[in-house]
Amino acid sequence: MPHQNRLLCPETGESYSPDEPRWCSDSGGLLQLSFKPELDISRLAHRKETLWRYRNALPIDRDENIISFDEGFTPLLPISIAGRTVYVKQDHLFPTGSFKDRGAAVLISKAKELGIKRVVQDSSGNAGCAIAAYCARAGISCDIYVPQSTSPAKLAQIRGYGAALHRVLGSRQDAADAALEAAQKHYYASHCYNPYFHHGVKTVAYEICEQLGWRAPDAVVLPVGNGSLFLGAFIGFTELYQMGLIEKMPNLIGVQSRACAPLVTAFEQRSKDLSSVVVGETIAEGIAISAPIRGREILQAVRETNGKMLAVEEEVIRKAQIEMGRCGFYIEATAAVAVAGVEAYTRDANRHERLVTVFTGHGLKGT
Ligand SMILES: Cc1ncc(COP(=O)(O)O)c(C=O)c1O
C-alpha cells in the first residue's frame, strides 16, 4: 500500500520522491521524511510482538521488501533507580545487541525496495553492527567505517556479518569523512543523515506507549551522541500525539558525558546551534560525538518538548554500569549514561512522574 511520502530539506524547501536513492539534498542539506503514519490500535492484539506490528506507520511500500529478524517489542521493565521506579526499555536485547536494529530494519528494507546492491556507513560500532547484520540478511554488500578506537567485540561482530570493515586512523569524525567520500559512489546507510533510520527508531516510542496502555510517559531520559535515538523518539511521540493516541508529549531529556557534551553546552547557553567545544576521552564511546550534524534539530526537539540536556561525569557512568550489573543487567558504558542521567534528572523532578529510559547497548559489546 503506497504512502504519499516526500523527502524534504527544511532549510531550502527542496523536495524529492522517495523512489530516488538519496540521503541528502542536491545542496548537501539534511533531509526529513514527510510521511503520514496510520495506526489502528484495535487491530494490534493479534499481531506478532515485533516492531512491524506498526506496519502502516512504517515507510516501506511492499511487504516483500521487509528485512527482519522479528525484532522489537522489547520488554519495558520497572527497575529501581535512584530510589524511584523507572520503566526501562530493554533494547540491549535486540539481535545485534543495540537499539540501532530498529533503524537498520527500516533503512535496509528501504534500500532493498530501492534495488540497492551496496551501501556504505560509518559508526562508533553499534550502528555498524546493525547495518552489517541487516545487509547480510538482505544480500546487500556493505562497507563499514569505524574509528581505530572501536571496541574489539564490535569489530569482530561487524566482520562476523561479512561486512568490509575499514578502521580509520583518527577520530570518529575522520571515520565519518571517509564514509562521506565513499558515499559519493554508493548509497549512504547513515544513521545520522538517512531519515529512514529515524523512522525505524521511532518504534521505540510506539512500543513504550503501547506497553504503558497507550499513555505517554511524563519524561523520557536518553543518551545522545548523533541523536538517532533522541530524534527517532521525538518523531514517534509526535506522530502518536498527532494521531490522538496519546494525550500529551513527554519531556525529552538528553544525556551526554561531561567529557563530550556539545549539546549540553549549547542548551546551557540557550543557543539554537552548536558552537565548537573542547572534548575529552569518555568510556561512553557510542556518544563521543563532538559535532552532531543534526544538533540544531536535537536542540529544537528539546525545546519543543520542554526537555533538558544533562551532563554526567565519567565516574558516575562507570558506577551506574556496575550497579546495573549487580541488578542483573549487563549493559555497555554508553547505555549506563542513561541511568546516570536518570539519577541526575530525578534530583529536581516531581516524585510522581512516570519516567522511562532505555538500555541502549549490551555489555558484551564493551569488551
Ligand atoms: C549503546 C549506545 N547508546 C546510545 C547511542 C546514542 O545514539 P546516537 O548517537 O544516535 O545519539 C549509541 C550510538 O552509537 C550507542 O551505541
Description:
It is a single chain. With 367 residues, this protein is an alpha/beta fold. It folds into two domains: 194 residues, 3-Layer(aba) Sandwich (Rossmann fold); 96 residues, 3-Layer(aba) Sandwich (Rossmann fold), CATH 3.40.50.1100. The chain contains eleven helices and 13 strands. The strands form three sheets. Strands 4-5-13-10-11-12 form a six-stranded mixed β-sheet, with helices on both faces. A four-stranded parallel β-sheet has the order 8-7-6-9, with helices on both faces. Strand 1 and strand 2 form a beta hairpin. Helix 2 runs parallel beside helix 3 and helix 6 packs across helix 7. The model has no long low-confidence stretch (mean pLDDT 95). The chain binds pyridoxal-5'-phosphate.
Summarize the topology.
Layout lengths: L5 E3 L6 E2 L15 E3 L41 E6 L2 E6 L10 H14 L4 E5 L3 H13 L2 E7 L4 H9 L3 E5 L3 H11 L4 E2 L6 H7 L1 H9 L7 E5 L4 H15 L8 E7 L4 H7 L26 H10 L3 E5 L1 H13 L6 H14 L8 E4 L9
Parallel strand pairs: 5-13, 6-7, 6-9, 7-8, 10-11, 10-13, 11-12
Antiparallel strand pairs: 1-2, 1-3, 4-5
Helix pairs in contact: 1-2, 1-5, 2-3, 5-7, 6-7, 10-11
Outline of the structure:
This protein has helices spanning 100-113, 126-138, 152-160, 172-182, 195-201, 203-211, 228-242, 262-268, 295-304, 314-326, 333-346; strands at residues 6-8, 15-16, 32-34, 76-81, 84-89, 118-122, 141-147, 164-168, 187-188, 219-223, 251-257, 308-312, 355-358.
**Overall SS class:** alpha/beta
User: Ligands in the structure?
Assistant: pyridoxal-5'-phosphate
Which CATH-level-2 architecture of the largest domain?
Answer: 3-Layer(aba) Sandwich
- Global shape: globular
- Regarding quaternary structure, what we see is single chain
Could you please say which CATH topology of the largest domain applies here? Rossmann fold
CATH class of the largest domain: Alpha Beta
In whole angstroms, the N-to-C terminal distance is 44 Å
What is Rg? Answer: 19 Å
Question: Count of helical segments?
Answer: 11
State the low-pLDDT regions, or none: none
Helix amount: 25-40%
Number of domains: 2
Strand order of the largest sheet: 4-5-13-10-11-12
User: Total strand count, please?
Assistant: 13
SSE arrangement, N to C: EEEEEHEHEHEHEHHEHEHHEHHE
Query: Can you give the mean pLDDT?
Result: 95
Q: Main β-sheet, in a few words?
A: 6 strands, mixed
What is the strand content? 15-25%
